[in-house]
Amino acid sequence: MRIGIDYGGTKIEAAALSEDGEVLHRRRIPTPDKYDLALTTLRDLVAAVEAEVGRRGTVGIGTPGSLTPGTGLIRNANSACLNGQPFQRDLEAALGREVRLANDANCFALSEAIDGAAAGKASVFGLIVGTGCGAGYVLDGKVVGGAHGLAGEVGHMPLPDPGPDELPAPACWCGLRGCLENWVSGTGFQRAFKAATGRDLDPPASVAAARDGDAAAQEALRRYRDRLARGLSVVANLMDPDVIVLGGGMSNVGQIYEGLAEAVQARTFSGAWAGAVVPARWGDSSGVRGAALLWDPEEVPAPS
């Protein structure tokens, strides 16, 4: 049995997967706001899942932020109590076993590469376009983290080829300017829609307006798709993935896929990229599944 934990900003979800990927048990709890409480909460959560299923499992966890190579300290997590802490080491001590840990977007990409929308493909890029913009890259079934844990962080590269209406580049929370996250996240889409129209509609309301024939909302979605294509064209040129899988709230907007892969291809070198851009198979469950899949099947002890 493999236990995956998705450590979110407001909730923590745990799921136990069988050998064939079936969910044996699922549990959600609120996210604590203190570090010591986070450790005891996760310890008790794993114990509760194992008691429910009647088996001991391996544990993988998808975290906000990432591990700092060399120190093992968490950085850039929106759950601020984790930042600067040796989370993996302390959690292993609390659980009394090895724990695999990866960024939540990497877990999303791994889930979709193993048995999701990109199953069977060697090179898979996953992009979450929700409140923020996280990404991960999987090659031959393994997460590629990079020398500094930065592989796949396209959300904090500049929007390529900005037009006059996209300048001056907006400031990002990370300290840079013009980051792709400020344009293709759900929050970024709402900001751009308000700047263009003066109307402060959240993404679902904007999408509904577009479906009802609102010309300004339809144009906002067209501009969103163009900006997304520009960002993904850099991914296609750098990594040449077979499939780009989208997750998060904006990935549920069907209109953004119309002509998206072709727009990405048009911006790649020689127009040679011929991959697909698809929505996630597992949706909000991809993160917790991917965390469990940080352990290969052959590494999991047989049921006793």
In short:
The protein has 304 residues and is α/β, with parallel strands linked by helices.
Give the helices and strands, then pairings:
Elements: E1 2-7, E2 11-17, E3 23-30, H1 35-53, E4 58-63, E5 66-67, E6 74-75, H2 87-95, E7 99-103, H3 104-115, E8 123-129, E9 133-139, E10 142-143, H4 181-184, H5 186-197, H6 203-211, H7 215-239, E11 243-247, H8 260-266, E12 276-279, H9 286-292
Parallel strand pairs: 1-4, 4-7, 8-11, 11-12
Antiparallel strand pairs: 1-2, 2-3, 5-6, 8-9, 9-10
* Total of DSSP H or I helical runs spanning 4+ residues: 9
| Helix-strand pattern | EEEHEEEHEHEEEHHHHEHEH
Compute the average pLDDT. Answer: 95
**Main beta-sheet annotation:** 5 strands, mixed
Helix/strand class: alpha/beta
Strand residue content: 15-25%
Work out the number of β strands.
12
| Strand numbers in spatial order across the main sheet | 3-2-1-4-7
Distance between the termini: 11 Å
Query: Would you identify the regions where 5 or more consecutive residues have pLDDT less than 50?
Result: none
Helix content: 25-40%
Shape: globular
Radius of gyration: 20 Å
Characterization of the model:
This protein has 304 residues and is an alpha/beta fold. The relative contact order is 0.16. A hairpin with a 6-residue loop joins strand 5 (66-67) and strand 6. Helix 6 crosses helix 7 (215-239) and helix 7 (215-239) crosses helix 8. The strands form 3 sheets. A 5-stranded mixed β-sheet has the order 3-2-1-4-7. The protein has a 5-stranded mixed β-sheet with strand order 10-9-8-11-12, with helices on both faces. The protein contains 9 helices and 12 strands. The termini are close together.
